[in-house]
Fold these 3 entries.
Entry 1:
Amino acid sequence: MSETVVEHGGIGVRAAHSTRQRWSAVRVAGAVVLGAWAAAFWFLLVTGRDALYLSTRTEWVVPVAAVLLSAATLGRLASARSSHPEPLGRRELGVVVAMIVPVLVLTALPATTLGSYSAGTRAPVSGSRFSATPSDVATGELSLVDVAAAQTTPEAERALAGRAGETVTFVGFVARYGSTLADEFMLTRYVVSCCVADATVASVRVVNVTPGRFDENNWVEVTGTIYPIGREVIVDATSVGAVPRPDRPYLSA
C-alpha cells in the first residue's frame, strides 16, 4: 500500500491505493508462446528431427534457438507481474493461438521426409550451391553430391565422364515416373543448402534391377558401375539392397 496527499477544501486528505503486484494475463500469455516454441526446438534437438528440416550447415539454429527461447521465457515470467490490470483481449488471444498451433502441428505429426511424389516437381541442382570443383569430382570416392555437382558445369561433367566404368555405392530412395522401365528406377536424394524449402534433387538412373522388388520411396543401397552419358548418369547395378532411412536423409550441398 502507498499513500498520497490530496488537497480537499484546504485540508490535506491522505488517500491510499494498492500497489500489490498481480499476474498480467498478457505477459503470461507471451511467456506461454515463448515457452511453447522453446519446447518445440528442444523436441527437435532431442528427437533428432532437426535433420528432417535443416542441412548440416544450419543445424546449429536448433540448439541456439532452444537456449535463447528458454531464457526469454524465464525472463518474461520474471516480469509477468504488474501493479495494474492487463487483461487478455480477444485479439491477443487469437494471436497466441495462431502462434501455438504450428508448434502443436510440428510435434504431433509423424516424422516424414520429402519423397518421390515431390521429386518430379523439384528443380535440378544449381551449380552456385556447390563447393565441389571439377578436380574434386575427378578424384576420391564418388557420392551423389559429386554426381549432382558434375551436372552443373561442362568442366565437372567432363570430369565425371572420365570416371565411367568405376564402381560406386549410393544410398537413396526409389522413384519411378511414367517412362521408367520395370527393371530400373531413379535412385534419388534431396540436396539442401539451408532447409527443405530450398531442396533440389540429385538422382541417377539404376538399371539391371529385379522388377517389382522395390516400391517407390523404399530406401536402398545400390552398388554398380557408373556410366555418365551427358547430363544423365546411369548405374548398372550389381547389387541392390534395402536399408533403413538414414538419420540425415538430406544431403548438404
Entry 2:
Amino acid sequence: MTPAIAVSHLNFHYPDADHPALQDVSFEVGAGEWVAIIGHNGSGKSTLAKNLNGLLAPDSGVVDIAGMTLAEETVWAIRAKVGIVFQNPDNQFVGATVADDVAFGLENRGIPRAEMLVRVQEALEAVEMSDFASREPARLSGGQKQRVAIAGIIAQRPDIIILDEATSMLDPAGRTEIIRLIQQLRATTQLTVLSITHDIDEAAKADRVILLNDGQIKTTGTPAEIFAYGPELLALGLDVPYPEKLKAALTARGVAMPQTYLDEEGLVAYLWTLHSTM
C-alpha cells in the first residue's frame, strides 16, 4: 500500500543560519496511522511541517504525499490532500463569523454553495461547535478557536491532517479536549494524522513516535519504546509522562519498579499488585 507520507533524505537550510534545520530526514506514515514527531524547541519540527506541503522548499530530498511527489506542478493538488492546524488559531481566521471562517477554504476551492453549506454544518457538528456558528471567532476561548480551526480543515475533507504544535497554547483541559476530538475524527474518517509536538501526553496517543534532535531523526518507535528512554528525553530538553516521573520518585524511595514503560493504567495495575503482596 502506498504510504500517506513518504520523506526521503530531506535537507533544508535557512539562508542566514549557521546549521541546517533538517539533515537527511527520512520516514514514512501509513494511511490511517497517527505518528507524532517530538523534539525540543529548534529541533526542526515546524520546519519539517512546512516542507511537507510546500510552504518551504527543501534544498534536496523527496517528499511524496498520497503517491504524488511534491513539486511546483503538484503543490496545489497536494495541499488539497493535506490540512495543517497551526499553533495559533488566530492566525488562521479570516471570516467574520465561525461559519464564514469554516466556509472560506471551500469558497477558494470553488465548492458549490449547496455542498458548501452541508460541509460547514457537518464540520461544525464534528467539532461540537454548531451552536457557535454565528459567533465572532475572536470572542471564543482558546479551545473553541482551535476547534474552529480544525473544522475549517476537515470541511475540506483532507486525507491527512498535520497538527503543528496545535495544542501548545491551550491549558491542560483544552489540550485533552482537542486530542480527544482528533481521536474521534480519526476513528470515523480514517484520517492520517501527523502530530508535531513537544507535548509528551499528546505524543502518547500516537501509534508511533519519531524523535527529532537538531534536525535529524534520533530514533523511532512506539510511545512505550520512546518513553522508556526517560533520562535521555530529559537530557534532550523534553518532558516525560507522569507515570515515568512517579516511577523515578518511587525508585528513589526504594520501591522496586519495572524498567519498561507503563502508562497510567499499567502503573496503577502494577502498584495494586505490588501492594497486595506486601
Entry 3:
Amino acid sequence: MSSYDFDFFVIGGGSAGVRSARIAAGHGAQVGVAEERFWGGTCVNVGCVPKKIMVNAAEYGMWAEDAAAFGWDISAKGHDWAKLAAARDAEVARLSGIYDKLLKGSGVTTYNARATFIDEHTLQVGEERVTAERILIATGGTPMRLDIPGAELGLISDDLFTLKELPKRVAVLGSGYIAVEFACLLRGLGAEVDMVYRAPMPLRGFDEDIRAALVEALTAQGIRLNPDVLPTRITRAGKELLLGLSTNFVREVDAVFFCTGRNPNTAGLNLAAAGVETAANGAVLVDGEHATSRKHIYAVGDVIDRLNLTPMATATGHALADTLFGNRPRKASYENVPTAVFSSPPIATVGLTEAEAAVRGAVDIYLTRFTPMRHTITRREGRKTVMKLVVDQATQRVLGAHMIGEDAAEIMQGIGIAVVMGATKQDFDRTIGIHPTAAEEFVTLRTRAREAGVKAAAE
C-alpha cells in the first residue's frame, strides 16, 4: 500500500488536468485534482468556447446583410449584447459543470481550492495538506499587460466576457490569435476597431501568403490597422481613454484590450520548495517525457509554453496518464498539429510554412486564390479564399497546408489527417473533389506556383 494520500495529484482543472486525471483514475490510480478558479480552465470559461460563440454571433450580422443578394428581405435591427451574453454564459456554466461531474464520476477527489507545494511530495490544498507519489502541474497561462503607464486602465482577454455592453470604439493591442479574433468579432458586432501592433503584418509565424490575405480581409471589413506601432501610454479623459502611440498620434477609445501574450501561470505555486526549475518567463521546464527537474513531478499544457493549444494540452495529458498508470507508454507529437484562427474569414493551417520548409530544402509551392461561390453573388469585399500546399520536391510529401477562407477550420481537420499520415501531392491529386465546394481546390491544384528553398537543397 502506498504511503501517500494519492498516487497522482493534478494542480489545475483545465483541459489538460481533467483529461489526465480521468484517464489515470480509469487505470486504477488514486487521483486528486485542485482547481482554484473554475473547472474547464481558460478554454471553457474565458477562451475557446465563449469566444467561438461570440464569433458565431458576429457572423450572423454579415449573413443578414448578404441575404438580400439571394433574394431575402431581411433587415438587421441591431445587436442585443445582453441576450448574447446570457446565452453564452449559460453554455459556459453547463460545460464547466460537466467537467466537475466527469471527474467525480471517474472516482477522482476534487478540491475547489488553490494548491501550493510544501515539498516535492506534499501540497497545501486550501486548508488541507495532502501527499502524492506523482504530481502534475497543469495550471495553464494568464493574460499579460504591457508595461506602459496607465496599463491598469486597459482590459485583458478575460474581461471581454464580463462586459455589460459593447464598447463602441476599441483599440486591440497585439496581432496574434487572440488579437485578430477579438478585432474581428468586436467589429462584426458593431464596434469601431483599431489594431495596434509592432510587426509589419499580423500573425507572426504563420505563412506569409495567409498573413497578406488577412491584411486585405481586415482592411475590407473596416478594421483600422496600425502596423509597426507601439502603444506608449493610456490615460483617462472623462469617459474616454486616450491611447498614446509611438507615432505621436493619440486614439480616443472606449476600451483598450491587451492581447499581447500570456504568461505561464506559475506564480504562487512555490515551485522552489519542490525543486522544480522554471524558465525566465515562469514556464516549467520539462524533458521529452514532460517530467520536470524532479522526475516524479510533471507539467503539460500552456504552463510549459511550448505549443499553447487546448487539444495539444489534452492530448499530452492523456498520453502521460497512459504512460504512468496504463502500462501504455506513448507520446503526443508536437509536429503537424492542425490549428485555426477564428478570424473573419477564418484561417487554418497544418504543418510547415513555406519559409520553414525552404530552410530544410527544395519545395514546390501550389497556391490558389479565388472568390468562393457565395461571394460571387454577394460581391462582399475581402472574402477571397487562399489555399496553399507546401510540397517536398524530393519525396513529394505534403509538408504544409494553409488556408484563409470560409469553413477553413472544418476543411483543415481532414487535411490534417492526410498530412500527419505523410500523404504525397500525388495522393491529393488522385483524390476526387466534392463539387461544388471550396475544399475541392485542395485536390485540384495542378500547376506549381513557384519553387522555394532550392539554394538550401543545393548546399
